[in-house]
Amino acid sequence: xxxxxxxxxxxxxxxxxxxxxxxxxxxxxxxxxxxxxxxxxxxxxxxxxxxxxxxxxxxxxxxxxxxxxxxxxxxxxxxxxxxxxxxxxxxxxxxxxxxxxxxxxxxxxxxxxxxxxxxxxxxxxxxxxxxxxxxxxxxxxxxxxxxxxxxxxx
Length: 154
Fold this sequence. Notes:
Elements: H1 3-25, H2 31-46, H3 49-52, H4 54-70, H5 75-129
Helix pairs in contact: 2-4, 2-5, 4-5
């Protein structure tokens, strides 16, 4: 081989090695997104989503598991799966919080109704027990008028 041939082969080999290393590196692993998705799924589980939003939590878990499996070989797909898992976990959290707020509202409404009933019963008891509380007719007073016909002495 000639010197000229080596001059072309060395840069081409260097360029090929550079492209191969970039190709192997691919997209960066979605570690931050995976960590966030794991955190959100954990929050949803601890917040009671298994009781109030089990379908959303199940979807989040499934997508998170898929993201974990894809992290090594398909980082871009893993990123999308992690983002979807985060979104599903947020939905599960929101539905759980809404369901808990509805339950608290029902409790407050029931307590308010009980208080109203107690107040009404107490008011009725007080009205019945208080002396002079019930309306009585006014006593009749004898008339002080002089009769229209004169009375004669006997």
